Amino acid sequence: MKVDASNPLWRFRGITSTAMLFFAYLYLPIVILIALSFNENRLATIWTGFTTDWYVAALSNDDMLRAAKNSLVIAISATVIATIAATLAAMGMSRGRFRGETGVSAILALPLLVPEVVTAIATLLFFVAIGIKLGLVTIIIAHTVFCIPFAYLPIRARIEGMDPSLREAANDLYANEWQAFRRVTLPLLWPGILSGAMLSFIISLDDFVISYFVGGAGATTLPIYIFGMIRIGITPEVNAISAMMLLVSIVFVSISFIIDRIRY
Amino acid sequence: MGKLFRSKRFWLIAPAVVYIAFFMAVPLMQMAYVSVLERGDYGGGNLGAFSFDAYVNFLFERDLMDNLVLNTDYIQIFVRSFGLSAMTMVFALLLGFPTAFYISMQSQGRRNFLIFLVTIPFWTNILVRNYAWMLLLRNGGLIDGVLNWAGIETGGLDILYTPYAVSIGLTYTYLPFMVLPIYASLEKLDHRLVEAAFDLGADKRRAMKRVILPLAAPGIAAGCILVFIPCLGAYVTPELLGGGKFMMIANLIGSQFGAARNWPFGAGLGFVLLALVLIAMLAYSLKFKSLPEEKI
Which chain B residue's Cα is nearest to A5? Predict the structure, then answer.
């Protein structure tokens, strides 16, 4: 819609105030959490002074660091596998329509449709049935599944916006399939691939429900560790870890958003 | 078939599709199979012969005389889940539609920025977001503190670990899913149609009701489904903000794989939840000829 907002006809009562309320509701908890993570007071209700002690405590907590390392290993592995599979699939899907396309699209979207808890228990039952020991490997396999659509969507969108005549020109100029991909498609596609990879990474790093069910006892990820700490009680250390997780997500999504807007 | 395997395209698409089919579609089918098995003697992964126990258990329990008696415990959890999800959907719509409308009337640059602001919380950790609400809602927490400071004696707010807290948390968690599809349909709306309504003497209420809302209907319906469906399967929010006291469907499913150790029953519940989701998606796609996800 392109409207002249200064025209009083377009001023509907309550619209602006509801939008303000909406953004306050969306961001107040995040702002409060970050503020409290710097609060000196252990009870975290009254502000008694600025400190970074809780961050120091969190970052020297070995259990937390081990969980963070597990999360990183999982997120990086799942992202690499998912991004490669998604890039290939997006290139395959882009070359005009074919029979069975709807079915293929449905399979690629399946992880987005099924409720997380259902995916979690179905995957757990499957791993138990085929006899793989639950741990880091099972989490990586399960994460890769739901990372594929998150990587696929931005890559696919990028390909859709690409001029097909560029690739045809490369072929006309005697580039073979690999050269055309390497010199023409990839340079145009990389913002989509990078953006998709970053979204997969963040979705994997943040996942709790699926890791919780398919992880078994040995593989504690950062969200599982945080869940355990929240269960015990609210502490300033949890505030600090939570604030760091928020920051990582926000930075990654912002970068992905900026990359996505790079022009062809 | 030979032609298929020789096509380059097949080999490009196959890895992703085979991966998802093998590690997701097959497990879902297996889950349906487990749901019609008997619970083994030791529970857990110990499974028995073919039986519809899981589905019978949902409605009935056996009394001491081995007769089936109606048991409404599980139905209550389903009713509560539907109630909370419906409530969340209404709250999200009341907040989300005006916001989407507001965003759609801004300049291009401002619009992109505001939409970016709407999507950020979606990408942040769900535990952290719900934890932030624990900080706000608990007794002696921020809201309690502010009310006391303003001279309103709350004597402890007592809202954390109630269905209200769960509802606030669910609305917070799924709100972006309401705004994005509504915004997408409002953005495409031809403003001249609204102006034509004004020129023909419609007042604002009438223009909203007769022109804007009908044209935004596919977006509104998509938003409602995209909020309602994940709400129905919410696990973290009832666990944290409900303190485990107000189970929703997902928590009941989870508990069958934890303390209750009744995997066939858990699988059966999972299958029912999946069926509900697919029916809602199917209904939407029959009416609007696309999937609700495509509206984002």
Answer: B105
Q: Tell me whether residue A43 is in a domain.
A: no
What ipTM does the predicted assembly reach?
Answer: 0.89
Residue A247's alpha-carbon distances to A33, A143, B120, in angstroms, are: 11, 22, 11
Residues of chain B with Cβ-Cβ distance to A125 below 8 Å are 27, 30-31, 34, 263, 267
| Beta-bridge partners for B236 | none
Which residue in the set A32, A88, A113 is minimally distant from B12, CB to CB? A88
Domain interval for residue A177: 53-260
User: A22 in a domain, yes or no?
Assistant: no
β-pairing verdict for B37-39 and B47-50: antiparallel
Query: What is the number of structural domains in chain A?
Result: 1
Written as six digits, the tokens of A163 are: 């001029």
Please indicate whether, in this complex, the C-beta atoms of B23 and A142 are within 8 angstroms of each other. yes
In a domain, A135, yes or no: yes
Contact B101 A14 (CB under 8 A): no
Angstrom CA distances, A24 to A29, B91, B95, B117, B160, stand at: 9, 15, 11, 11, 20
In a domain, A61, yes or no: yes
Tens of pLDDT along chain A (264 residues) come to 666 666 676 777 788 999 999 999 999 999 989 988 898 877 656 777 888 888 998 888 899 999 999 999 999 999 999 999 999 999 988 877 788 888 898 899 899 889 999 999 999 999 999 989 999 999 999 999 999 999 998 899 888 888 878 878 888 888 888 888 888 888 888 989 999 999 999 999 999 999 999 987 778 999 999 999 988 887 888 889 999 999 999 999 999 888 877 765
Residue A144 and residue B23: Cβ atoms within 8 Å? yes
Which residue in the set B15, B132, B263 is minimally distant from A125, CB to CB?
B263
**What is the rounded (10 degree) CA torsion for B14, B15, B20, B25?**
50
Q: In whole angstroms, what is the distance from residue B274 CA to residue A80 CA?
A: 29
Name which of B30, B195, B235 is nearest A122 (Cβ-Cβ). B30
Angstroms from A188 CA to nearest CA on chain B: 18
Put simply, the answer to whether B16 touches A88 (Cβ < 8 Å) is yes
Q: Which residue has the tokens 């499957």?
A: A126
Euclidean distance between CA atoms B234 and B249, whole angstroms: 8
- Ramachandran angles phi, psi of B47, nearest 5°: -115, 150
Cross-chain CB nearest to B124 (options A45, A141, A249): A249
Q: How many CA atoms lie within 13 A of B176 on its CB side?
A: 15
Structure tokens that stand for B128 in this block = 């952290």
- DSSP label of B37: E
Q: Where are the domains of chain B?
A: 56-295
- The reply to whether residue B277 touches residue A114, judged by beta carbons under 8 angstroms, is yes
Q: How far apart are CA B87 and CA B167, in angstroms?
A: 7
> What is the distance of C-alpha B29 from the center of its chain?
22
| Domain B56-295: homologous superfamily in CATH | MetI-like (1.10.3720.10)
Collect all residues of chain A within an 8 Å Cβ-Cβ radius of residue B190: 1
CB contact under 8 A, A226 and B172: no
Contacts of A246 in chain B (CB under 8 A): 124-125, 128
Neighboring chain A residues of B281 at a CB cutoff of 8 Å: 113
Q: Which amino acid belongs to residue B216?
A: A
